[in-house]
Amino acid sequence: MTWIVTYHRKVEKELGKLPVSVQKALYRLAFEIELSGPVRGNWQNYSKLDGNRHHCHLKKGKPTYVAVWTEDKGQITVEVVYAGTHEKAPY
User: 10 Å Cβ neighbour count for 7?
Assistant: First the structure.
């Protein structure tokens, strides 16, 4: 089964401001989600948050960059709702 990954419009807007290495990591994460689903235990500091939300680190160090995504229960869609520094992440 293939999952459909979309980006929240705020993520799309801020994506160009992220370092290139973080952008590549986010695209790689989205590709893995499309192939294998939203549970990504093979990524650094992956954790399932409350409800249908997940998060992992895209780049560790200072600053640390993270991604947060939600899965739509009953459908095969995932939306990346945040990609940016750890300090501003919506946990």
Answer: 17
DSSP 3-state of 70? strand
Nearest to 33 by CA among 86, 76, 89: 76
Alpha helices in the chain (DSSP H): 9-14, 20-36
Domain ranges of the chain: 4-88
Domain 4-88 has what CATH class? alpha beta
Q: 88 is written with which tokens?
A: 């501003």
Nearest to 64 by CA among 12, 19, 29, 33: 19
Instruction: Give tens-digit pLDDT for 44-81.
Output: 899 999 889 999 999 999 999 999 999 987 788 899 99
Residues 24 and 18 sit within 8 Å (Cβ to Cβ) = no
